Amino acid sequence: MDENDIVIKHARSYIGVFGPRIDDIANEVASAAGIPNALSCPYHITLITKDELRQLMADLSNKIDDLYENATTIDTKHIYSLGLGGDPKGGCWVVIIWNAGNIFRKKYGLCFKQFHITLSNNDDHSLNKSLYSLRDIFSIENLNLNIIDHLVLLYNLSNQYDQALIYVREMCIRFPDSEKAMLAYARAMHLIDEQNNEKIQEYCYKRILNCASNYTEWECLFGKNELEQIPEGLKINLFMPWTSTIRQRFINIYSEEQPQFSQKAHHHLLVPFIGPRQTNQNL
Asked: Which residue numbers delimit the Swiss Army Knife 2H phosphoesterase domain (predicted)?
């Protein structure tokens, strides 16, 4: 199913995400867990709760229509299920990662939200519905790299930088000592660039310098065979130009250190595709 199988709309005094893809996610998890479909309302992900919407209506006054319109444009391509969550009282839900939803909420001054799809009529809104509520043991090893990348962003959005570092490390373990590791560390630096977390930034700097000193070229430069080693789901996140801020930090911190990795002159390198109107270029 594609993005058009999801609709964001105002329903029963809240704003939610509905559609066949949401139903499929819910039914797949419920079926695997043997949970009957006892829900009295359509499956959905709540983007803005009733109380939050009431407050926004008071704060935004005549601009509330803009909020509704802007909500319908949120990216819904990257909505991921982590599995079944639940509590001892019988409530159950699908734990969801949807970073675009939290980025939208942040623009309107709303707090970070643990997105989920409720599977039961017994729904306690005060419960933790993050990945810590999963009924099965949560294992990083079972996650694909695209979900790990979104977990890094999720923990940055929720200001849990130590947790973000765990998943950054996992990305780099999967792609050890290579261009892929360098790009993963740079991606982490990009995500935390505005958070002023020097501990994580310093760690990433040192690891990038190690990659550049021993294994690979700087930034988004590839040999032809290396491009095929990057999973399609990660290319959109890793094939990004480094920001001037990141470049300047390397100049400031490592002004007396230089990478030692060398590439033979006759080996052609590529700048990969990083946007819908750009193409690969031979260097």
From this structure: 13-125
